[in-house]
Amino acid sequence: MITEVFKYMSLNSNYILSQFIRHFLISIYGVLFAAIIAIPLGFFISKRKMLNSTIVGFANVLQTIPSLAMLSVLMIGLGIGTNTVVFAVFLYSLLPILKNTLAAIKSIPNSVKDAAKGVGMSKFQRIIKVKLPLSISVIMGGIRNALVVAIGVTAIGTFLGAGGLGDIISKGINASNGGPIIISGVIPVVIMAVVSDISLSFIEKKLSYRYKK
User: Fold this and answer.
1) What tens digit of pLDDT does each residue of 96-137 get?
2) Cβ atoms of residues 53 and 139 within 8 Å
3) Mean pLDDT to the nearest integer, 45-59
4) φ/ψ (deg, to 5) at 110
5) Residue 145: which H helix or E strand, with range?
C-alpha cells in the first residue's frame, strides 16, 4: 500500500501540488473574509448586549449546520464552483473569530481602558492603540481554529466542482482499488492542517509575548 501511495504521488505530483494550492487558497480566502467582517463586528457589539447575543446566536446556528447540508443550500442560491465553497468557509469561520474577539476584549482590564480614556484618546484610538494590540493574540487563536475547520470543509467542496484535494479523495472513492489514491489526497490535507495550526500557534505566541513585555 505504501509503495502504491508513493508511486501515485510521484506520477501525479504536479496535479497534487496544483490541487494543494487551490485547496489552501479557498480555505485562506474564506477565513480572511470572515476575519475582515468578524473582528470589527466583535469590537462593535462588545458593549451592545442584545446585539451581541443575537449575532453570536446566529453564528452558533450556522456552526451547527452540517457542512454538506450547508454547501447544498448555498448551491441552490449561488450555483456550483469555488465561490460557493469560499462562502461556506466564510460562514463557518465567523463564529470562532467572533467569539475569540469578544473574549479578548472582555479580558482587557477596565483600568487599562480607563487609563486610555483618561489620557484623551478617542474611541478609535483606544481600539487601534490599546484594545487591538492587547486582543490580537487571542483573536489569532480564533483564526487558527477557523483555518483548521476551513481546510476540512474545503475538502467537501469537490462535490460542488471547486477542486482542491477533495478531488483526489473523491477519485479514490470511485476507483475499484482506490486506497492509494485516497491516502494520496488525505496526506496533503493532514499536512496542511497541521502546518497551518503550528504556524498560527507560533504567531499567536509571538504576539502574546510581544504585548506582555
Assistant:
1) 999 999 988 888 888 887 788 888 788 888 888 888 888 888
2) no
3) 84
4) -60, -30
5) helix 132-156
CB contact at 8 A, 28 and 195: no
- Region 89-98: mean pLDDT is 92
Rounded Cα distance, 207 and 151, in Å:
24
56 neighbors 99 (Cβ within 8 angstroms): yes
**Helix (H/G/I), strand (E/B), else coil: 109:** coil
For residue 197, pLDDT over 80 is answered with yes
Using the Cα atoms of residue 70, residue 71, residue 72 and residue 77 in order, give the sign of their dihedral.
positive
Q: Please give the C-alpha separations between residue 122 and each of 39, 114, 119, in angstroms, as whole numbers.
A: 19, 12, 9
- What gap in Å lies between CA 127 and CA 43, rounded to an integer? 8
Distance CA 52, CA 170 (A): 40
Cell numbers for 145: 481554529
**Listed residue (119, 136, 109, 111) closest to 43, CA to CA:** 136
Scan for cell 481546510, then name that residue: 151
Residue 108 Ramachandran class (φ > 0 left, ψ -120 to 50 alpha, else beta): beta
Residues in the chain: 213
First to last CA, the chain: 51
DSSP 76-122: HHH-SSHHHHHHHHHHHHHHHHHHHHHHHHHHS-HHHHHHHHHTT--
d(CA 94, CA 85): 14
